[in-house]
Give the backbone structure.
Amino acid sequence: MTPPPTDGGPRPQPAAPASRPRRRLLGGLAVLPLVGLAACDRGSPRAASFKGVDITGADYARRLELSDADGRARSLADFKGKVTVVFFGYTQCPDVCPSTLGELAQVKRALGADGERVQGVFVSVDPARDTPEVLKAYMASFDPGFVALRGTPEQTLAAAKEFKVYYAKVPGKTESSYTMDHTAGSFVFDASGRVRLFVRYGTGAEALTADLRALLDEAKAAA
C-alpha cells in the first residue's frame, strides 16, 4: 500500500498548518488519495460514508504496545469490543491535546449508553514529563475511562513510527519549558480492532459523533 504523503520532507507522517507560536501540530493526511484505499485489504469492512478520512485496510497503525499509568502492559487487543480512538500528544500541550480529549469526552456523553463502548487512548510523546501520576490526573480531568499510555523514548519512537506519527522537541527558554511538535489527528479503530479512520484536528464533535455511531451500529449489526 502507498504510505500517506509527507509534508515535503523525509518524514513518513502527515502534515498540517503551523500553530502558535512556534509549535507545529500536524493535522495530517490532508491530501491522501482515498480512492481504492479500502480495497487494498479485501477482507476489511467498508462503510458507505465517513466524515473522517477512511483508512480501512491501512498497512500501518496495526500495533500499539506500551504501559498504562499503572505500569500494566497494554496493546490494541485489550480494547477489542469497543470503538477505540487513539491520540498522540502530551499533557503540557496548551490547546490541541486538551481540546481533542475534551471533545472526545463530549462525544462519548452524546452517544448515551453507547458511549460506554467508546474507548479513548492517549499516547504520550513526552514520557520524561508525563509521569504515571501526571497522566492519571490528566485523564481523570476528561473521562475516568480514558487510558493513558507511555513508554521509554525508544518505545515511544517505535509506536509513533508504526502510526506514521511525527513528534519533535522544540526547545524553550529553559530546559524544562520545551514544547512538542506532534501530529494532531486521531486514529479510530472499530470494535474488531481494525484501524478505520484518521480524524483531522478541527473536524468537530458532530462529525466525530456520527462516525463513531456508524462504527458502533456496524458492530451491532455484525454481532
